[in-house]
Amino acid sequence: MISGTADLRLLFVTRATSGVGRRMESILATLQTRKRDSVQIQRVDADVEADLVGRLGIEQIPTLVFVKDQRSVARIAGRATLEEIETVLATIAAA
To answer: The domain 8-94 is classified under which CATH number: 3.40.50.300, 3.40.30.10, 3.40.50.10190, 3.40.50.1000?
Structure first.
């Protein structure tokens, strides 16, 4: 899932076998609709992109990595609510 053309990117690192990750898909679909112009959402399969997961130091699946100006600026490990994600996005936007 990739959307938006913004400078802020949200990497959704998950696995096909992650039940929590599958449940978060609907949250991210809602976020994609709300923030289409300000956030690009990209799904990353941890099994396929193991090198990237290692470079990012991800230890828990799923993890959301917020990337601005090609730098990781925040992350949420484990299950996240829409409100939690939007709070992080607002904090990044205000910085």
So the answer is: 3.40.30.10
